[in-house]
Amino acid sequence: MINPPVIPWHALKIPWIGANACALWLITSSTTPANQLTRDIIPKYGPTLLQAELQTKTGLSFEQKGVKIGNTYFWAQLAKQDTRFTSAIMWLIVCLCLESLWIGALLIVIYRCHNQHTYLLQENEKRYQDLATLGADLFWELDKDLKISYLSGNFHYLQCEGLEGQALGQALKTISNLEANWEQLNERLLQHQPLENFTLRLHTSNTTLRIFKLNAHPLFDEHHVFQGYRGLQREITEEYNLTQTIAYQAAYDPLTGLINRNEFDTRLRQAIQRVRDRGIQSVLGYLDLDQFKIVNDTAGHLIGDQLLTELAQLLQQNIRSSDSLGRLGGDEFGLLLEGCSIEQGQKLSQHLVDKIKDYQFVWRGRQFQVGVSIGLVPILGDASNVIDLLSRADLACYKAKDLGRGRVYLADQNDTELDRQHLELVHIANIPQAIEENRFYLMEQPIISLLNDSYQHVEILLRLTDENGNIVQPNLFIPMAERYGMIGLIDRWVVKTVLTNYHHYYPEANTIVAINLSGSSLSDERFTEFVTQLLQQSAMPAERLCFEITETTTISQLDQALKFINTLKKLGIRFALDDFGSGVSSFGYLRRLPVDYLKIDGDLIRNIDEEEYIRTIVDMVNQVAIMMGMKTIAEFAENDAILERLRTLNIDYAQGYGISKPRPLPSISA
């Protein structure tokens, strides 16, 4: 009889094992060595168990052999044959009887944790799928070949199907009316770089533009091998439109559509730097309309606004696309000519003068003709800053007016006369020195009640003398102070002087004092603190103080103005909206401004007795004021006829030369 071969212990394999044991011990029937199995189950007694069976003669029947350890019983079933053998096993089934309570409990806990973990994974996956489907964002994944392997169900707006399996860049390019920098997208994907706010633009059938942003990060395994991308696409159309609107409002004049002063200053500053860096020839022009005030005084600001809009369009149509035309304020414009020689700048400017001269503006059958004076200065490499250049161009414009209007004046480097005038204006704008030398003084103009108000009202007016004692007109030094950034100092001086000496000016303390404020102070948070501290230190009642702010200044910085007004009104301070009715958007903004008084624009009041439509406008302003709980003040009440007309319209207050000219306030000892 031939003995079966001896099989080494370490080479003995388990040919079959029950499914429960497989699930419990995470093993397979075909590869698990017996010694490994028993070592995993019970290292100390496993070999003894199997060796005992190997030494037993077996037949065709099965018998059990086992070892009991504590409360746990290990057993084995061997299929036995009638023949004798030394070490041959046909089938071996190893099972584990769990009688020990602690082992059973442990397995139950493990089983439950496994089920709970599986449940949570399934719930998280379902939650992710629901959010990906219901959310506004698009989730997507790419495989290692940069092909789309997953898309959330929120792709219907692109009107395309079957993108899975396509390369992302190629798939998106197949979508009609979808624009992007495809070359940049493919480059970043091939280099396995993150995508950060990559922009897609979709032109829809109704001509609207939708904006999307792609963000994604590459995926790598533990060996740093690239596996694909996981990304998000989000629509930002609403945010984009809001940003564009805010940016437009911050950079463009709402009346003319031209760039505003801030944007023009920014472009001029950049042009100066380009001249320094690259030597690009450039020219700056300062434009001031001639005879425009006649239109305003005759037809009113509404018609004047219409004329300004038409002239702005005419100027814009007659310059190069690379030129910048901006409204600097009122009827003044700035013209920036980059890549332009002096000769070309003069030729273009003269062309603009001729176009404006030939333009005819008709209102109510009356024909108006306006002109434009232009001051030109070259932008040189040694140009100091925006303020100096604009100031010099402004002076050149005034020089053009002095020479007869409707012409171009070039201020070159050797213009000594212009240099002298420039120095004089700079000296006038030296506000700190004027304050130190007590060259500012205050006057008042009464505001009378037309309806028997018991309070007295006055408006504080500012005057300045030069070093020789000559009076400097406010329309000269106020704009210069604003241009040189010194108007805030003037506001502080006026407010401090009035609040500190209020009882000296008005011993009975029953006079409401109105002080004009600039836009600079409205936007200066420190000025709010300055006023608050002064009120606490002075004996002036807050309800006797009224700040006048112009309509145009307030509208141009509405949010800052509202914050300023609301903060100080809590202290009892009153507010008046000056020059109301001078703009085209007056009533649209009025509902947002919590002011106490509306000062009706003087250009309307001075013609109220002659023009029926003006009386209608004034009456409408008064009715709106009544509805909103505001009082009305009519400026430029220059005679008794105007005053009588104002009374018939139930205007609350009036101010003007027909009542009283400005008069000096009592002097104050230094």
Automatic annotation (TrEMBL):
Transferase as a keyword?
no
Q: Where are the transmembrane segments?
A: 88-111
All copies of the GGDEF domain together span: 280-413
Q: Which Gene3D superfamilies match?
A: 3.30.70.270, EAL domain, PAS domain
Keywords associated with the record = Membrane, Transmembrane, Transmembrane helix
Source organism superkingdom: Bacteria
Return the protein name. Answer: EAL domain-containing protein
